[in-house]
Amino acid sequence: MVAHVIAKAQLRVAVCFLGQMMPSQIEREILIEAPIDVVWRVVTEPDQIKQWFCTDAELDGRAGGAGRMAFEHGYTYFLEVVAFEPPSRFAYRWVREEAVKARPGDAMLVEFTLWAEANNTRLRVVESGFETVNWTDEAKARYIEENSSGWQFYLGRLRDYAPRANTAATR
């Protein structure tokens, strides 16, 4: 089976850096060949998240809950869950410093939206908040560049993993 990836980077312009416009958010959308309930579990359950996204994950799956995600490249993000609405919406704010509270102005907002399409799932992820963080334009540009390619990479892994998770769940 071949899944389709729509690499859609919507550029909502917020600031200009070195003569180039920086997006105010990163947006990616993919079609996954697995039912929505399976994709929801893969996106929200720590043991599943570790299969496609990060090396270690902890998550209190409820609005206001906390979490942590550690990545192979050395970054650890600390989360505050903003929305947990099975099986269609999961959102959190994340920061790299544990001592900093994940809130608007200090953290990026990551929102996963899922909807069923036949026996498949359409998933959209939007990372926003670049215009509100107190970072230099250079730091924002670097973050946007790293995370734009990062989301493309990790969503490809999600697209490939979710159908296998579905097969394992039905055995």
Structure overview:
This protein has about 170 residues and is an alpha+beta fold. It has a single domain (about 5-20, about 45-120, about 135-165), classed as Alpha-D-Glucose-1,6-Bisphosphate, Chain A, domain 4. The chain is built from three helices and ten strands. It has helices spanning about 35-45, 45-50, 135-170; strands at about 5, 15, 20-25, 25-30, 55-60, 65-70, 75-85, 90-95, 110-115, 120-130. An eight-stranded antiparallel beta sheet has the order 1-4-10-9-8-7-6-5. A two-stranded antiparallel sheet has the order 2-3. β9 and β10 (about 120-130) form a beta hairpin. α1 (about 35-45) crosses α2. The longest helix has about 35 residues, at about 135-170. It is globular and about 45 Å long. It starts with a strand and ends with a helix.
The first-level CATH class name: Alpha Beta
State the end-to-end distance.
19 Å
Second-tier CATH architecture? 2-Layer Sandwich
Please trace the helix and strand order, writing H or E for each element.
EEEEHHEEEEEEH
Query: Main beta sheet: strand number and arrangement?
Result: 8 strands, antiparallel
The backbone outline, from C-alpha atoms, is globular
Question: What strand order characterises the main sheet?
Answer: 1-4-10-9-8-7-6-5
Number of strands: 10
Q: How many domains is the backbone divided into?
A: 1
Beta-strand portion reads 35-45%
- Please, how many helices? 3
pLDDT averaged over residues: 86
- The CATH topology assignment is Alpha-D-Glucose-1,6-Bisphosphate, Chain A, domain 4
CATH superfamily: START domain
Rounded to an integer, what's the Rg over CA atoms? 16 Å
Helix content: 25-40%
Low-pLDDT parts are 1-19
Sheet/helix structural class = alpha+beta
